[in-house]
Amino acid sequence: MSKSVIIVESPAKTKTLKSFLGGDFRIEASMGHVRDLPKSKLGVDIDNGFQPKYVTIRERKSVLAHLKEALKHAHEVYLATDPDREGEAIAWHLKQALKLQNAKRITFNEITKSAVTEALQHPRDLDENLFEAQQARRILDRLVGYKLSPLLWTKVKRNLSAGRVQSVAVRLICDREREIEAFVPEEYWSLTARLTKQTEEKPFSAKLVEKDGAKIELHTEEETRRVLSELDGVAWIVRDIKVKEQKRNPAAPFITSTLQQEASRKLGFSNKRTMMVAQELYEGINLGSEGSVGLITYMRTDSTRVAGEAIAQAREFIEKEYGKEFLPSAPRQYKSKKSAQDAHEAIRPTSVFRRPEEIEKFLTKDQFRLYKLIWQRFVASQMQSAVLDVTTVDISAGNYTFRASGSVVKFPGFTVLYTEGKDNGNGKDESEEQTLPALSKDEILRLLELIPKQHFTEPPPRYTEATLVKALEERGIGRPSTYASIISTIQERKYVYLEDRKFRPTELGKTVTDLLVKHFPDIMDVEFTAGVETKLDRIEEGDLEWVGVISEFWSQFNQELLEATEKMEKVKKAPIETSETCPNCGRPLVIRDSKLGQFLGCSGYPECKTVVSKGLGEPCPVPGCGGTLVEEKPGSKNLRCSNYPNCTYVSRKNGNGDVPEPEITDQLCPKCGKPLVRRTGKYGEFLGCSGYPKCRMIVNIPKEGDNQAESEGIPCLREGCTGKIVQKFSRRGPFYGCSRYPDCNYILPGKPLDRKCPKCGSLLVQKEWRGIPQGIKCVNESCDYKEATPKKEAVAQ
Fold first, then answer.
1. CATH number of 187-249+386-456
2. Could you say which of 298, 463, 497, 692 is catalytic?
């Protein structure tokens, strides 16, 4: 009997859909995009209306073959890819690759039975405008990337890349760094009085704000001492008291950018990690008897709109759990920005009645923490405002005025559940946080002490992942689906790196940025890039033709490209001059090439042979090293520390690409107590101490499918040891030893078996040589039991 076929992107979605659609549908996964522009060439016919030349992705050929077989007897075909531009493009390419004539398009904002059933009842045709907006973005990015990158190869070094959006993001980081470098701190002073009532010993603080009714600023210690001398012996009198009721409203439910920002602030998640976990929550989690359920709505959105049913559900929950006083008289509505795609909802739980704590046992630690954040933010967004009494007290001391302020919460409102994080980790000053005693006008206070304090103005802060996303969003650069990939790309290209969770540009990043700004001012202009994003939105809305947008962009970009190419061909490839100067002779520093990679040296060579930096990549991660990462060999993908042989750090690649970044785990080092870090080495994953190189403790991670002696509960055979026998790996292959190494270095003489010695009852082991069984023996040294020929059925599987 023929069935209707639903095609989605990921296998995780298929499991969730199968859990509630039953046997009437066959659900298949495309594994993401099935077609794209070719990697080996431009793939865009510039002279023929910028027509793209799509090819089947090599890894998807078998997927398409499987889908064709599945569709042979299909009753109907539904394309159920994500409800955004990228999802529409995947659906369009599936239709073309599979030659589907009557395929129906369905979208749902959440993967729940009611949402999917509703979508199946109201299918639509493919949205051509939505697809063309994605296609235009893809072609623009391809034109910029494939035309700019070769210029960087000739001027700087090979294998560099430029991008329409990523290069502007790097520019923001470089511009901020130069602001910091150019910043000159200015001295200023504050003067704080510690006061109390005559009858009490509960002090509070007040800060100097005025002299003779005018604002006062203290710039030097001398000025401060002069004020202190004038305050000697004066009376401290309450001159004015103001009490003002203040309301604080809850934040809107999450959109993609605010979710990434808040997850960075509160959970310490990178944008990439946030989106990966959110994708898992959206596609569905197995909740035991409830089956696989999508826990949140679609996580790529810039709209704060919420469905009426979800608001009603939230209000019902709030009234039941917190009481009527926590429920506003009318539902809260939040305004989306003008460019928001209002077809999508905000990010919210699919059911507020599914509390985080009740489903925690089904979730990983990351999934639980992110789901809880989304759940709390959404519920709080429909709660009553918090009400505070903010008290401001002006205190006269001679002809000076000191001001004390404090607040008292009259009604907590939404803050009982959630408060938004802050990018500025310093928070408020002490006077703003304090609770003031009951004071009356003309009351005389007692001075406990006057505290003068020196300060210096600070430069603008470096971008964190959260503030960079905020800056990109405010400037209209990129869209919700692109923020994570932008930030990931600029780090992978070694243009920027994170230090104390703040972005700093590498010398390479500065050099590439300066070169692009000089020759391609439009491409690197923030407003120009934002304007392109607006035009892509208008293509999606059907207001602009995609070919016209690309043609206009290309005519301007190509002119700059021709001019830049002509200038570079006239100039012999020479060391790139930087804005920094030689510490020895004052000449400009230049970037030079060597067999060990690039370095920063004096332009006065050979008269001045100063070398400032041995590598232009990110710093060596070994604490206290101070070196930078350079190519291990010319053209090598592996990176090593420039301080070799004093530092032997090497960042290697595996056969599938980059080795994953080290990941801090919840486990503690059994030797020194510091957190263990998941790393990838030559022989696979392992847990190493975060205190390396001072602590070199390593805990092996057994491979899936290997014989896990520990799971059988085999205790260590050394007397007094509480460890267990686990499988470990060395350059010679697997072996079996104590889990408490290095405190216990016991090693079994072979692979443990699941049967005992018939002679003495001790453990039997299988001896091997290069994986070839060599016989069975007893681990008891006083027992001589042996088997010359191994019995295969006895070996533990």
1. 2.70.20.10
2. 298
